[in-house]
Specification:
Length: 220
């Protein structure tokens, strides 16, 4: 698969670092995530790895060949849910298109970050890690307020007005700064973004977790 004429994107001193073809790398990411799903458990990092890679190399991947290999190696059911979960995460689709299998996978992905005692808890407590540049839609939670605590790094919570569709307040949170936590009232349009790499926050809500609907996303 590698030839002397193939040069990778990176070079170390006078040595080229060769890479496998993009389609092979795509298959590896899917197989690697599938292995984690079966044994250690799937995480958001695996989902994001695939979405960022497939977006960047969309025009380079041989999708016909990749789909044939997905079928040949028995990854089809896993891949379909895995790919839909990624599209949901980056806002390309809504949860209304989820199958029962998609929802089970979503529960598995959330589980390691879920600090509740059980799914029957009438509250939410979870850790969330975000990076600068991560896309977060402006959204609201109709029935629950939300408390956000910055544990590491730096993040900004923005509030929006539904009528004017403009940012009305911008709050910067840091672990050792003047503002460490903020409360988002129920029904308040908001979004959060990271200003530093490795930012980690804790979220808590006074109600059960529910997937957002189209009516809970605000477009500017």
């Amino acid at each position: 698969m590698w030839t002397a004429s193939y040069k990778g994107e990176d070079r170390f001193n006078d040595t080229w670092l060769y890479r496998p073809p993009v389609t092979v790398s795509a298959l590896f990411l899917i197989e690697h995530a599938y292995s984690h799903f079966l044994h250690e458990g799937l995480t958001w990092r695996h989902v994001l790895d695939w979405m960022m890679f497939s977006r960047k190399h969309k025009e380079e991947i041989d999708w016909q060949a990749l789909n044939a290999m997905i079928d040949e190696f028995g990854f089809r059911k896993f891949y379909d849910s895995y790919n839909r979960l990624g599209k949901y995460l980056v806002g390309e689709i809504q949860d209304s298109s989820f199958t029962f299998q998609d929802r089970r996978m979503l529960d598995d992905v959330w589980a390691p970050l879920d600090l509740r005692n059980s799914a029957d808890d009438d509250s939410q407590r979870m850790l969330n890690a975000i990076e600068p540049g991560s896309e977060m839609p402006i959204h609201r939670h109709i029935f629950t307020s939300e408390t956000v605590v910055c544990l590491r790094g730096c993040l900004v919570e923005e509030f929006f007005d539904e009528l004017e569709r403009i940012c009305t307040e911008r709050i910067e949170l840091t672990p050792n700064g003047p503002v460490v936590a903020v409360n988002v009232p129920a029904g308040q349009w908001h979004r959060v973004y990271a200003k530093e790499s490795g930012t980690v926050l804790m979220e808590s809500k006074n109600g059960k977790w529910e997937l957002l609907g189209e009516e809970d996303i605000l477009s500017l």
